[in-house]
Amino acid sequence: VYRLQSKATYYGSTSTWSQYNYQLSTLHAFITSISLAAEPAILPANGTSQSDITAIVKDQFNLPVTGRIVYFTDDDPNGTLVPSNDATDSDGVANTIYTAGTSAREVRITATARQES
After folding, report:
1. How far apart, in whole angstroms, are the C-alpha atoms of residue 36 and residue 55?
2. What angle do CA 22, 27, 32 make, to 5 degrees?
3. How far from the centroid of its chain's Cα atoms is residue 115's Cα?
4. 42 three-state secondary structure
5. What is the rounded CA–CA span in Å between residue 74 and residue 83?
6. CB–CB of 80/95 below 8 Å?
7. Which residues pair with 41 in a beta bridge?
8. What angle do CA 49, 95, 42 make, to 5 degrees?
9. How far is residue 49 CA from its own chain's centroid?
10. How far apart are CA 49 and CA 98, in angstroms?
């Protein structure tokens, strides 16, 4: 991203130009979306069936966010998520495996990631 400027201050001295100048302006990426997918999405409640959970983390430009820790949680007291967190790869993808509990119910799996300052 560039910004258009007609003057700038360097080392306490302000320079003004007769024409505009383009200056590189850095923007820090911040997380705007986390998409979750489960494969398979429906499991028998037998305590051993597993589903691959994939989280895709994107920034404000819809580009993948790399190197962020994604924390996975579920509301099933008998189910498990291993690992409970994973770092995003170069495609913004983090993975975990959910193992079903022993009671039939709808399970909510949540993925969260922190913004870096």
Report:
1. 5
2. 140
3. 9
4. coil
5. 12
6. no
7. none
8. 35
9. 27
10. 8
Tokens of 113: 């990631």
- pLDDT (tens digit per residue) in 24-73: 766 777 899 999 999 999 999 999 999 999 999 999 889 999 999 999 99
Are the beta carbons of 97 and 81 closer than 8 angstroms?
Answer: yes
Q: Is 84 helix (H, G, I), strand (E, B) or coil?
A: coil
Please give the Cα distance from 101 to 117 (Å, whole number). Answer: 38
pLDDT at 10: 77
The token pair that represents 49 in the structure block: 């069936």
The proportion of the chain whose per-residue pLDDT surpasses 70, expressed as a percent, equals: 96
pLDDT for res 70: 97
Average pLDDT over residues 71-100: 96
Backbone angles phi, psi at 23, to 5 degrees: -120, 135
